Amino acid sequence: MARPSVMVTGMGVVSAIGCSVGAFFHALVSGRSGVRPLAGEGGLPVASVEFDVKAHFPLAHARTLDRFAQLGLVAVDEAVLQSKLQKADLQGPRVGVYFGSGLGGATAIDDAYRSFFAPEGRVNPMTVVLTMANAAAAHISIRYAIRGPSLTYSVACASSAVAIGEAFRAIRDGYIDVAIAGGAESIITPGSLASWKAMRVLATPDASHPEAACRPFSADRTGLVVGEGAGALVLESSEHAKRGGRAPLAEIAGYGIASDATNLAKPDADGQAQAMSAALVDAIAQPSDIGYINAHGTATPTGDVVETESIRKAFGATADRIPVSSTKALHGHLLGASGAVELIAALMALRTGTIPPTCHLEERDPQCDLDYVREGARRARVDAVMSNSFAFGGTNAVLVARRASAS
Amino acid sequence: MASDSIEAVLQEDAPRAEYSIEQTVATMRRALIENYGIDDPNLSEEAEISALGLDSLSFVEYAFDLETALHVKFDDLPRDITTIGDFIRFVHSEVIRQSDGQPRD
Hints:
Chain A is 35% helix and 19% strand. Chain A has 407 residues and is of the alpha/beta class.
């Protein structure tokens, strides 16, 4: 018996460059950056979401949600709305939540430590349920009365890519029919930023062009810019979507996952290439089928060179003919949410025939020698796309999607 | 005896205003409105705690907010609190017990 195809029927994004898929993608193709200097942090560039909590949640409910869970729920609401699934469609046991977050409730963690070390030492009784990494998945499950699996993947910067990949497998292998999949992250807090600064991987403040602080593959790149946000997909088996009369937006065709098994923080081209090759095999696709790669492209000095090498390893001579871009230049690094948000960027490239550029890339690093779409958004027919997510800890997760009509 | 000690004794003996239950209720109501957006004029003392619209965790958080607002510490929330009136009386008794009846808000 043939395994079902897995269709995307809804998408949602919350990011520094837009709180809907339309606004997000429009910013990507027009090169509008969401990176700004952060007051009180020496002008450290970050990509924060402009988000009015009160517009989305009653006050009492908002207090039960850390910011990452708030962002996640808003992205999920958009995805469910687009899918046209009704709440009743989501309530059975064959619907699951597969969500990713690298850290969980970072704002509540910061608040708790601040309170704990204050003279009175009192900690908010909601701290545990605000900080837990599965809080977003739990709230999604509760909001839509989803009674199948509600799972959280915490795999650093590959968290949401892994979540989507595992949801894809769960549908394809027949365990469920529908999944809400994606991820959320919000770590722009004093404690988290101090930890990242101590690692010396963040982009240096650029007073003259703060919006261009993140420059993937550029010779003068200085590091990553921390962003925040969420991305969500509604995935359905093709049969389930067809039965409900819902038109698929794209097909998730392949998922590859591999571990570097070498170093906690230093990426490895072999592990990354293995994940890309595995995703191609899973999708029954040739390297030449891929019309666009949304790179992990964090703009760290080491990361971009290693990813360039790994794409060459996985794609061979074809690598020179594939447009590759890193959209992190505009929305920053959403860490655990980056896989979902960047897959949506790739899916929009697939649907619109417009490849988002790598912005702020004037002079490329000589060791980064692929086609990074640096001239601006490019029109092209794209039949299949790849999205790369590589995590601290050495987990590499790669997703391949194709046009729904080609399936 | 130093004069400042006499002042202290006189101040100690001065009549005090009692912290009224109305003041406690006003503080509790304000916390409910400001922190949870709950402002229901139909809530009565006889209504069950669940009528506040807070789940069990949020209710614990509300109690935590009241500790801050009223400068008291609840060692535990009694399990026999079932109505809003029970909760008001518990909170007010703790305010009186822990503040010697002085308004501290």
